[in-house]
Amino acid sequence: MNVLELRDVSIIYQNTKEAVKHVSFAVPEGKIVAIVGESGSGKSTLIRAAIGLLPAGGELASGQILFGEKDMAVMTAEELRHVRGEGMAMIFQNAGDYLNPRRKVCDQYVETLRCHQPMTKKQGYEIAKKMLATLKLPDTKHVMNAYPFQLSGGMKQRVAIAMAMSMHPKLLLADEPTSALDVTVQAQVVKQMMDLRDKMGTAIVIVTHNMGVASKMADYIAVMQNGELKEFGTREQVIYHPENDYTKKLLTVVPKLQGETDGE
Amino acid sequence: MENNQEIIRLENVSKTFDLRYHKTLRAVDDVSLSLHKGICTAIVGESGCGKSTLARMVTLLEPVTDGMIYYKNEPIGGMQNGRNIALRGEKLREYRRNVQMIFQDPANVFSPRMKIGTFLMEPWIHYEKKSKKEAREMAYYSLKRVYLGEEYFDKYPHQLSGGELQRIAIARAIALHPEVLICDEATSALDVSIQQEIMALLKEHQDETNYAILFISHDLALVENFSQQVVVMYLGRIVEIMNGAAFRKHARHPYTKALLGSVFSIYDDPDKEIYVLEGEAQSPTGEIKGCVFCNRCSQAKDICRREAPVLKPIRTGHQVACHFV
């Protein structure tokens, strides 16, 4: 079954520029789909539309976005509130900026949980602590009692992922979750997202411009350029047998380490 | 001038910043390094390892706390006999002419109210004392060198894309044929296809005028394809210096290996176990005893926590700071 399905989606901004043009693809349950493309290709717009958080002026011009069986466009605000958080969750590029700088991590974490599921603060605290431990954050107690500025970028990103994952959503949307991070931290975050998929069966849509990350994580890869979906296929198909010229170009311009192709 | 001539030499350069409550932060610690004509030296490392501070010291934007920087064997900035010396006045102007810098985000480099043409005319008017008319001709020529048409002369920065702006930043930097070009993450804000064009441009002009490049980056694959010498930094110290080619095979320091292990490449087997470096880097404030990497290193022994390893040569052009190499 498909968790998310996009049918002929077009998105227009107020300046009448079409940011996304007639894009259709589906995300099967428990699979990872990577959307790759360069800046301005509409990949972030697409993923924001999927959770119903288009920036001001953005509008779904045509097509349908189906979550499970339901059309997102006809949902009431209350239904949407339930879908977000429990059904699907999102991680942004600078997740640290989305944490409230004046409140401790534990307070905002527990509040987020209690918004969606009935529980006491104590229960929420326990769940949060367990989730942070799953994400291999060192010294969870310290992290819980810290203010966001006391944590490093990688730690904040992992806190955000933990928050997003602790409601066990069916679908996780990640908008460039690793591009602000160093390579070693990126490796940690990628590994943990893949572990979560394996353990909880969450489907993930990850937007990235890093072909390496896309190739590592994804089961399916979608290539976008200028708002159009250029190619969509399984990882093997897109990486080893690209059909579209733009995909081929994208693959050749990525700098490669020597001794990479022959497996060290 | 012949190739391989030494242009800039850093000797035991350190930089500490004073923080509140009498704490200090060691951004760069005891770094020795030299830049040669026609050679691209790359510095790689994670954020906070001091690579940008190092670049700012070489361009004399930041005073040196300890050690000395030499330009063609002349001391230009650092500590001498307990006194901080740095170039000033006309000499500093002359130095700036020869050492140019390209920054990470081209959008922040340009004044939004200045036309591209004015921006490109400036070096000629300020340094070569050209008339406006001549400078205009030179600006057209500069545009041509980076494959942009003359119509860009009358445009404003906001009308251009990041890649085009970066080209113009390069055009201005290389206008007066500098001897050293310092690129601080010059391509990391750009898309990969544009990154390739920019790198090709830098390479092409390097073949032409033979400037030395100090290339700061965190993209290991890019660095390998582009530079002849690679310097790996961790927490302000150099942990490994090696030749650019095939460094995946030659890397010896555990940190370099960890860095290489965390790069995802397109054609890797997706089922391959991801190598994860445990823990967080030590705090750069206060004194660090022993090896900077010891708290995350899998091979760390007692000696690593007691003594800081020094850089020792293991082959020509390859130095490693590790007790077990």
Q: Count up the helices of chain A.
A: 10
Strand numbers in spatial order across the main sheet of chain B: 7-8-9-3-10-11-13-12
Largest interface, and how many residues on either side?
A-B, 41 and 40 residues
Give the amount of beta strand of chain B, in percent.
Answer: 25-35%
* Percentage of residues in helical conformation of chain B: 25-40%
What is the CATH class of chain B? Alpha Beta
Instruction: Give the full name of the CATH homologous superfamily of chain A.
Output: P-loop containing nucleotide triphosphate hydrolases
Task: Give the CATH level 1 class of chain A.
Answer: Alpha Beta
Structural class of chain B: alpha/beta
Class by SSE composition of chain A: alpha/beta
Distance between the termini of chain B: 38 Å
CATH topology group of chain A: Rossmann fold
Element pattern of chain A in H and E: EEEHEEHEHHHHEHEHEEHH
Shape of chain B: globular
Query: How many domains comprise the coordinates of chain A?
Result: 1
C-alpha Rg of chain B (nearest Å): 21 Å
Counting structural domains of chain B, the number is 1
Number of strands of chain A: 10
The coarse silhouette of chain A is: globular
Q: Alpha-carbon distance between the termini of chain A?
A: 39 Å
What does the oligomeric state look like here?
heterodimer
Task: Give the helices and strands, then pairings.
The complex is a heterodimer of chains A (264) and B (325).
Chain A (H helix, E strand, L loop, with lengths): L1 E11 L5 E11 L3 E5 L6 H8 L8 E9 L2 E2 L5 H11 E4 L13 H12 L4 H14 L5 H5 L8 H13 L5 E5 L7 H18 L2 E6 L2 H7 L2 E6 L2 E7 H6 L4 H9 L11
Parallel strand pairs in A: 3-8, 3-9, 6-7, 7-8
Antiparallel strand pairs in A: 1-2, 1-4, 4-5, 9-10
Chain B lengths: L5 E13 L5 E13 L3 E5 L6 H8 L7 E6 L2 E7 L2 E4 L2 H10 E4 L13 H12 L4 H14 L16 H12 L6 E5 L7 H18 L2 E6 L2 H7 L2 E6 L2 E7 L3 H4 L3 H8 L40 H5 L5 E4 L2 E3 L5
Helix pairs in contact in B: 3-4, 5-6
